[in-house]
């Protein structure tokens, strides 16, 4: 009877998650970072060209490779959203129906800010990382009964037919299955590491936890396990951009100062207590508690503590490894956005999963014992509170994204249609993304002085964008005649960027976007007055 009720509640939670995610994705307008990846893949005529074009991105290739077949079928960037929907639903399906987390955790998790919104609504390379992380948890959970008693935990009895630290005759005769799981585990590590820097850090944490688990093993097996780190090297190669990239490691190290500590110190607060500044028009990527230093400090400490209390000792090791390596990486690559910090929470889910697993099928006695990976009932409330605190931010974000445009990028064709026939149309750097994505054309960037189909973060672009006369010089190169400009900059912002010598007249605009850099403005350029 209890099992039937659990299955009913879990199924209802899954249906509600699918409905909410479908509503959010269908109402979410794609913005710059989402369509930037699409533009790169769309402009690549082959896989070789794709690897060449993405070398400045600082991202591994998995997401781009998933987009590649889509861009061969259509040039509409909204084709990413069904793919994102399937990936996010698959990840949630694993958490709901295959994880050993207790019922309350599985019922609350689908409606948290990160799983429903940041990693659900946005077509980026994060949800695929969550899905692969949960797949690794399943592999490790299935392998848990195969491990010595010392690794399973002292409170965990040996399985029937097994001596402590030994194996059953069935297991000894099924050596192929453990070998398959080992290679599947390494394949999943490779894929996870090739999603994002955060995926690489989580993959490293998984394998470090795997090696630190107490076990008796031969030197040969130890060497094989150490070779697991080799599968992470391709991702490192892709994440470290070439020397002429604007975002190379030298750039980050050159600009390092003590202020870089701030995002890492704020990351636990953003991950475990996300609370957007709801009174702001551009609330996305804000954290209201940062306005109150004492509350922010309390939240930054309380979140990890709650997470720690809701885990078994075995799960705490994985949680601590991922927590530490993520914050350390944040000293070089700042964790300035909520989506970056959310992988601290994903690491917590993984730690709860592998720390709770007992029977290889994903089920555990945590449902009856009352805690995420913990045999003691008092440990239920920290995990309950941790997951409940994610829900208000998710409700607010989903409601806002459903009632306000997140981006105005999809209105680019409307502004293009207002340009008189025969007039020349140009854009500035940041407007290229929406124009190239939604009109399927390359455009002349007036501040770069060249025509492009996608943005490229090389060092040359940074030098050009620093020139104070770049707009005037670009207009002069085009010569006299009717000239129109589409920009993401409002009139005051454009005046600051281009200088008073660049004369324009506002023709039309599309504003009101939640993301502050996603409004569009159409200007007529005075080519005679710009000097």
Structural summary, described in words:
By secondary structure, the chain is mainly α. The protein folds into 2 domains: 2-155 and 175-403, no CATH class; 409-525, no CATH class. 56% of the residues lie in helices and 5% in strands. It has 27 helices and 6 strands. The protein has helices at 2-27, 32-42, 47-53, 62-73, 80-97, 103-108, 113-118, 127-143, 149-152, 169-172, 176-193, 197-212, 219-226, 233-239, 249-254, 261-272, 293-309, 313-330, 338-356, 366-369, 380-388, 391-403, 412-417, 432-439, 459-465, 470-478, 491-498; strands spanning 424-427, 443-445, 450-452, 483-487, 504-510, 520-525. It has a 4-stranded mixed β-sheet with strand order 1-4-6-5. A two-stranded antiparallel sheet has the order 2-3. A hairpin with a 4-residue loop joins strand 2 (443-445) and strand 3. The radius of gyration is 25 Å and the shape is globular. Mean pLDDT is 85; it is low at 145-174 and 359-378. It comes from Dinghuibacter silviterrae. This is Dolichyl-phosphate-mannose-protein mannosyltransferase. The chain crosses the membrane at residues 6-25, 79-97, 126-144, 183-210, 222-240, 289-310, 317-336. Keywords: Membrane, Transmembrane, Transmembrane helix. Residues 155-174 are annotated as: Disordered.
How many DSSP-defined strands? Answer: 6
Tally the helices: what do you get?
27
Low-confidence stretches: 145-174, 359-378
Q: State mean pLDDT (0 to 100 scale).
A: 85
Structural class: mainly alpha
Please state the overall shape, judged from the principal axes of the Cα atoms.
globular
Strand order of the largest sheet: 1-4-6-5
Helical content, roughly?
Answer: 55-70%
Hey, roughly how much beta strand do the residues contain?
A: 5-15%
For this structure, the quaternary state is single chain
């Amino acid at each position: 009877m209890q099992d039937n009720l659990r299955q009913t509640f879990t199924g209802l939670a899954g249906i509600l998650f699918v409905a909410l995610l479908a509503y959010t994705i269908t109402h979410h307008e794609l913005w710059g970072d989402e369509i930037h990846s699409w533009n790169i893949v769309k402009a690549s005529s082959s896989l070789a060209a794709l690897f060449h074009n993405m070398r400045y991105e600082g991202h591994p290739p998995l997401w781009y490779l998933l987009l590649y077949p889509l861009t061969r079928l259509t040039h509409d960037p909204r084709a990413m959203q069904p793919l994102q929907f399937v990936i996010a639903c698959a990840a949630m399906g694993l958490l709901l129906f295959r994880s050993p987390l207790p019922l309350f955790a599985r019922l609350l998790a689908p409606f948290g800010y990160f799983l429903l919104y940041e990693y659900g609504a946005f077509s980026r390379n994060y949800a695929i990382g969550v899905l692969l992380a949960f797949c690794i948890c399943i592999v490790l959970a299935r392998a848990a009964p195969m491990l010595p008693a010392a690794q399973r935990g002292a409170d965990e009895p040996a399985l029937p037919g097994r001596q402590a630290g030994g194996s059953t005759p069935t297991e000894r005769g099924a050596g192929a299955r453990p070998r398959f799981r080992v290679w599947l585990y390494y394949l999943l590590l490779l894929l996870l590491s090739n999603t994002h820097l955060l995926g690489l850090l989580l993959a490293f944490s998984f394998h470090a936890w795997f090696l630190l688990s107490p076990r008796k093993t031969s030197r040969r097996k130890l060497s094989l396990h150490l070779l697991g780190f080799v599968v992470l090297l391709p991702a490192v190669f892709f994440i470290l951009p070439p020397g002429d990239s604007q975002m190379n490691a030298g750039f980050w190290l050159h600009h390092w100062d003590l202020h870089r500590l701030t995002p890492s110190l704020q990351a636990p607060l953003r991950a475990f207590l996300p609370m957007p500044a709801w009174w702001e028009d551009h609330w996305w990527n804000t954290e209201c508690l940062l306005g109150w230093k004492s509350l922010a400090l309390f939240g930054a400490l309380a979140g990890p503590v709650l997470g720690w209390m809701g885990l078994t000792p075995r799960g705490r090791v994985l949680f601590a490894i991922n927590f530490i390596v993520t914050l350390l990486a944040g000293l070089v690559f700042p964790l300035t956005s909520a989506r970056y910090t959310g992988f601290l929470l994903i690491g917590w889910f993984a730690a709860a999963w592998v720390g709770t697993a007992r029977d290889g099928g994903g089920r555990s006695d945590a449902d009856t014992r009352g805690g995420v990976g913990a045999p003691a009932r008092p440990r239920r409330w920290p995990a309950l509170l941790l997951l409940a605190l994610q829900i208000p931010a998710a409700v607010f974000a989903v409601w806002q994204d459903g009632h306000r445009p997140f981006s105005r990028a999809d209105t680019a064709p409307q502004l293009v249609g207002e340009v008189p026939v025969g007039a020349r149309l140009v854009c500035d750097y940041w407007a290229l993304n929406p124009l190239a994505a939604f009109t399927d054309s390359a455009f002349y960037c007036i501040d770069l002085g060249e025509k492009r189909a996608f943005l490229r973060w090389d060092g040359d672009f940074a030098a050009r964008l620093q020139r104070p006369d770049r707009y005037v010089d670009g207009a002069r190169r085009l010569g006299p005649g009717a000239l129109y400009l589409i920009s993401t900059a409002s009139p005051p912002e454009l005046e600051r960027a281009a200088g008073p010598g660049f004369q324009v007249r506002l023709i039309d605009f599309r504003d009101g976007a939640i993301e502050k850099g996603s409004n569009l403005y159409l200007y007529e350029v005075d080519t005679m007055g710009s000097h």
